[in-house]
Design a protein that fits this description.
Strand content: 35-45%
Largest sheet: 7 strands, antiparallel
Number of helices: 3
Low-confidence stretches: none
Shape: globular
Number of strands: 12
Mean pLDDT: 85
Order of helices and strands: HEHEHEEEEEEEEEE
Length: about 220
Amino acid sequence: MALSLVLLGGIYFLAHFDRPPAVTILPPTPLNVKSGRAPDRWIPVKWVWLRRACGFVFGLPRQVGFDIQFVKATEPVALIVAQNSLGPPQAQSNGLAGWILPVGTQHSLKGTESIVWWPGALTTDRTEASLHSRGVIPIDYGAHLFPRLEKDRVDLSTYFSAISPVQPCFFAAVRAQLPYGKRLFVLDVRQPELATNRFGFLVTAEEYDAKGKKVKR
């Protein structure tokens, strides 16, 4: 019984206290993840009967929808922070700063008024979603999102890119513990004193049921 209590205590500690930071700036490299829920990802596509059996036993994979905004910052970093009362970033490294913010009525932040790409994505738990602008001239924007769905949040790994022939390219990799109803804001802070066209992005997440309706909380 004593050993069981120790094991249960260890499991509780790992579940509740060993959570990653709210925002972690990663090296700016593409995501290296294995898409698909286990055991679904190991089942051949043509084995429909086994996939249906897994769905019956484990339930259908949970779905998550993302709203993504690529923005251009037109003010110095300190002014953007002050105008929006952002406070210190929850993570800052590799020329990036990241915040978890409440979802307000405004779709953009003061000082980042120019939304240059605004896609959406719907994917399932542990399945990567990849998006490309392909046609937003002269810049090609890309977004890659890998969600691990939890009870009230998404453990989200992201990789964003903006490839341009006329200005420095932008690459950002971030892991965030993103609660439903909040948004991740990541800003390029490589030249914080300049009022220039630097990149940033905003991400919100919401869970959807099998019928495509937003899960109410």
